[in-house]
Write a structure and sequence with these properties.
The chain is α/β, with parallel strands linked by helices. It contains eight helices and 13 strands.
């Protein structure tokens, strides 16, 4: 009888072991599937491997603190990440010279704030936007500096360019001067339409003629932001939101509020990104449009493929704070 019971017990233990092995295999398979969509599962940026099949770029905003605050820490993380991926270029969303802009293309702040801080692996093309603090100096000096720099690429106060993703896929990038756009909208006479604003007519024409699969728009002021420091920009909600929906803009990326946020209006297709923590961070907010928000110094990385755009909030402490995949 003891032998029968012993055999039965061994059989029971064997079945239990097979059951737990089966559960473990399923868990591993589930984790593998999840990680392909969401890098939050990785404890730090070591989870990202070099990706030569995508167009990888960084987005940085509100970064110009002349080496103070957490600007250098963010710059160090950018350099670290640039060595892990095939970095294509860098976009900025303004407040490039946070306190009072620059006076000229020969201003000493170019060395203190830009050249000496971002001298690592970020030696790629930079495509800047202007912010409100940049207007406290001479905004045209930032355009002029393009002629002196091999990286700083700002042909005008607002401009557009195209990048190739692969042999058949292209992306359109539109860089706005939102300070000027908002100011001119506020100055419209009664009865005037937004078409009277040169920049508005320009961006509308660019969007109407865009044939690229992916469309990114960058600017300084948010359309949507849940922060209690600045928040939504009513003028841009009136001017830009209808254009973004009509012309199928994929992302609007901005700064001004010093936090990370991913927001989307219910039923709309454009994703709104705030990434204003290039120099220091303020507390984040949240409302009915907020998908995710975070207070941490850092920048945003986008990996663009033919059928997907992967967006990651990269923090200066070597972590991925959030990731999101948009497919089309």
């Amino acid at each position: 009888m003891r032998n029968v019971n012993s055999a039965s017990a061994r059989l029971h233990r064997t079945k239990q072991l097979k059951y737990w092995i089966h559960l473990f295999v399923l868990a591993l398979a589930f984790a593998s599937c999840s990680r392909s969509e969401k890098d939050n599962d990785f404890p730090d940026t070591g989870g990202i491997i070099s990706d030569t099949s995508s167009l990888n770029f960084f987005v940085l905003s509100d970064w110009g603190f002349n080496g103070s605050g957490t600007q250098k820490e963010v710059a160090g993380e950018m350099s670290l990440m640039a060595r892990k991926v095939n970095l294509g270029f860098i976009l900025t969303c303004g407040d490039n010279f946070q306190v009072a802009g620059v006076k000229s293309a020969a201003d000493s702040l170019w060395k203190i704030n830009f050249e000496d801080v971002y001298n690592g692996s970020q030696q790629v093309k930079w495509y800047p936007a202007l912010g409100n603090h940049d207007y406290l100096g001479n905004p045209d000096a930032q355009v002029d500096y393009s002629a002196k720099s091999q990286t700083w690429t700002m042909p005008a106060r607002f401009y557009s360019f195209v990048k190739q993703v692969n042999t058949t896929t292209f992306a359109r990038f539109i860089v706005l001067d939102t300070y000027d756009l908002v100011t001119r909208f506020q100055q419209l006479d009664e009865g005037q339409t937004p078409e009277a604003i040169a920049q508005y007519s320009w961006v509308k024409n660019i969007l109407a003629g865009a044939k690229e699969k992916w469309i990114f728009v960058t600017g300084h002021y948010p359309v949507y932001s849940s922060s209690n420091v600045h928040g939504d920009t009513p003028e841009l909600k009136t001017l830009l939101r209808p254009l973004f929906e009509q012309y199928h803009v994929d992302f609007y990326i901005c700064g001004h509020d010093h936090n990370f946020e991913h927001a989307r209006e219910n039923g709309e297709q454009t994703d709104y990104i705030v990434t204003g923590t290039g120099g220091w961070a303020r507390p984040e907010g949240s409302n009915e449009r907020t998908i995710f928000s975070l207070s941490a110094p850092g920048f945003t990385m986008v990996s663009l493929a033919a059928d997907s755009a992967t967006l990651r909030f990269v923090t200066a402490d070597n972590h991925i704070g959030y990731s999101f995949v948009k497919r089309k």
